[in-house]
């Protein structure tokens, strides 16, 4: 096994490596990304967000022979929640302020770009890039959207999206579609009022804005009954976005309202928080929405991007939430087909009190930033989800610029009581097929399914695992140096050989124990 490269050799190799010639991917390649075998172009692989690859060279019969061939160490112990994205043999990924390009088969560093913030960095979590026409796009902790040359990492443009001093930042992996870059703000827990945006991919100029916290009564009289509360209404977009390329519809998952726990401060349904909103990607015009929780008082974001899929001749959209539910909707009839609990759920309908309310899950559990994978081979939705309870308490509602705006607090049960799960559900009915559980260890990163009947994922003790997609049986395990796995697994071919890339590092380390391990990308193949 190759050892990871030290920081000095990383820098030297980056300086000596010849410039890459990256001119794509084209719009046609992006449209076909969900089914591509030679790339992994978006956070959730393709526009439909399925996290499924038809690759079957590595399969349930031979995955036990998987070996780690190289490890790239970022030398950074900050959060690491991206999914490695691959194009033309190059992996692209982000961590806090840096964007990396490495060889997708050998881990050889090709270039690294370090962003220098000009404003306050609110939260340094970043989930990845968009890539199109030779350009890399990413958001920053001080709420800028930047464009880099995909071949060299050289900056091309920098657009300030919002004022980070009042709590705005960009953590989501953007998507590019028909010449526009799509990204929305995060920062609900700091009392921001979020928006979804489209920017011109060539210039960074804003093309349209959609208010995720609407004012007025255009969406119903019960939207926000206290008009003043919309100024700090929340509504983050945390992770990434989904597009139906056939219809040009953009799907946006929107997080919790603010203040998080004080629902009486903001009476009404609090649209579009805890919702999936469908917009016209070209114009930003509203089309329809589904709200998973009205007037949320437990910080139960709809955080992960939704997944689009077809089952039994029906066009569906599914989304999993921090509240521990998996929802499926009929996109033709625009109605809910099923709502299935993924873990234990208790006291969710009871109001938060000053004395404290025991609830399951707590706000660090359920499905966080990684949504379902649609396994095309078995017609299932495989969901990462955490069973973990806590106590929520109502408190003072006081907004201080740049500080958390909770209106209460959440006490988590001991971390050892958390149970990580990867759960397979029938994509048509929501019936549970199988469950893989890791008591005491959370599973929060993205799961990936393949045409080889494999379900791949990682746990927060550094364990990379492969399961049989038909039964949930464990077929392969390897620990990535004790580095917490909270990012996703991507798979692709280089030179006709199938590889897997796994991100590991100190993801959300504050809620778990473990040694301090720097971020790394581990690459596996059959040897």
From TrEMBL:
InterPro entries: PQQ_b-propeller_rpt (IPR018391), PQQ_rpt_dom (IPR002372), Quinoprotein_ADH-like_sf (IPR011047). It holds the Pfam family PQQ. SUPFAM superfamilies: Quinoprotein alcohol dehydrogenase-like (SSF50998). Its cofactor is pyrroloquinoline quinone. Residues 1-21 form the signal peptide. Transmembrane segments: none annotated. Keywords: Oxidoreductase, Signal. Residues 40-331, 423-502 form the Pyrrolo-quinoline quinone repeat domain. It comes from the Bacteria. Belongs to the bacterial PQQ dehydrogenase family. This is Alcohol dehydrogenase. The lineage of its organism: Bacteria, Thermotogati, Deinococcota, Deinococci, Deinococcales.
């Amino acid at each position: 096994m190759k050892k990871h490269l030290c920081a000095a050799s990383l820098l030297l190799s980056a300086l000596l490596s010849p410039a890459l010639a990256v001119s794509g991917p084209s719009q046609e390649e992006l449209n076909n990304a969900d089914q591509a075998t030679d790339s992994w172009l978006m956070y959730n692989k393709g526009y439909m967000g399925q996290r499924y690859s038809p690759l079957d060279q590595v399969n349930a019969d031979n995955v036990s022979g998987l070996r780690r061939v190289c490890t790239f160490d970022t030398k950074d112990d900050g959060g690491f929640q991206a999914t490695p994205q691959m194009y033309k043999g190059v992996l692209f990924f982000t961590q806090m302020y840096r964007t990396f390009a490495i060889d997708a088969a050998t881990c050889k560093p090709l270039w690294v770009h370090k962003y220098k913030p000009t404003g306050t960095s609110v939260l340094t979590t970043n989930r990845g890039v968009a890539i199109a026409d030779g350009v890399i796009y990413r958001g920053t902790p001080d709420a800028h959207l930047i464009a880099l040359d995909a071949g060299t990492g050289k900056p091309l443009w920098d657009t300030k999206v919002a004022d980070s001093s009042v709590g705005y930042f960009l953590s989501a992996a953007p998507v590019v579609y028909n010449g526009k870059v799509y990204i929305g703000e995060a920062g609900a827990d700091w009392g921001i009022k979020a928006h979804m945006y489209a920017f011109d991919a060539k210039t960074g100029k804003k093309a349209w804005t959609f208010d995720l916290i609407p004012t007025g009564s255009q969406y119903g009289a019960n939207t926000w009954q206290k008009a003043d509360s919309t100024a700090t209404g929340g509504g983050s977009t945390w992770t990434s976005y989904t597009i139906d390329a056939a219809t040009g519809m953009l799907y946006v998952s929107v997080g919790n309202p603010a203040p998080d726990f004080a629902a009486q401060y903001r009476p009404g349904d609090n649209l579009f928080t805890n919702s999936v909103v469908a917009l016209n990607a070209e114009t930003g015009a509203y089309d329809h929405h589904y709200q998973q929780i009205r007037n949320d008082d437990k910080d139960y974001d709809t955080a992960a991007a939704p997944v689009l899929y077809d089952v039994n001749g029906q066009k569906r959209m599914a989304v999993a939430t921090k509240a521990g539910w998996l929802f499926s909707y009929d996109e033709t009839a625009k109605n809910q087909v099923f709502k299935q609990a993924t873990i234990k759920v208790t006291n969710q309908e009871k109001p938060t009190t000053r004395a404290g309310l025991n609830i399951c899950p707590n706000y660090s559990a359920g499905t966080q930033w990684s949504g379902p994978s649609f396994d095309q081979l078995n017609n299932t939705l495989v969901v990462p989800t955490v069973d973990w309870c806590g106590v929520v308490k109502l408190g003072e509602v006081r907004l201080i610029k740049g500080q958390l705006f909770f209106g209460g607090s959440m006490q988590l049960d001991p971390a050892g009581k958390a149970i990580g799960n990867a759960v397979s559900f029938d994509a048509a009915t929501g019936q549970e097929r199988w469950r893989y559980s890791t008591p005491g260890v959370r599973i929060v990163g993205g799961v990936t399914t393949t045409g080889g009947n494999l379900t791949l994922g990682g746990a927060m003790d550094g364990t990379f695992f492969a399961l049989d997609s038909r039964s949930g049986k464990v077929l392969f395990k390897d620990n990535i140096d004790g580095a917490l796995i909270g990012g996703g697994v991507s798979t692709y071919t280089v030179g006709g050989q199938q590889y897997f890339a796994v991100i590991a590092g100190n993801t959300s380390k504050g809620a778990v124990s473990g040694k301090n391990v720097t971020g790394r990308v581990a690459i596996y193949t059959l040897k």
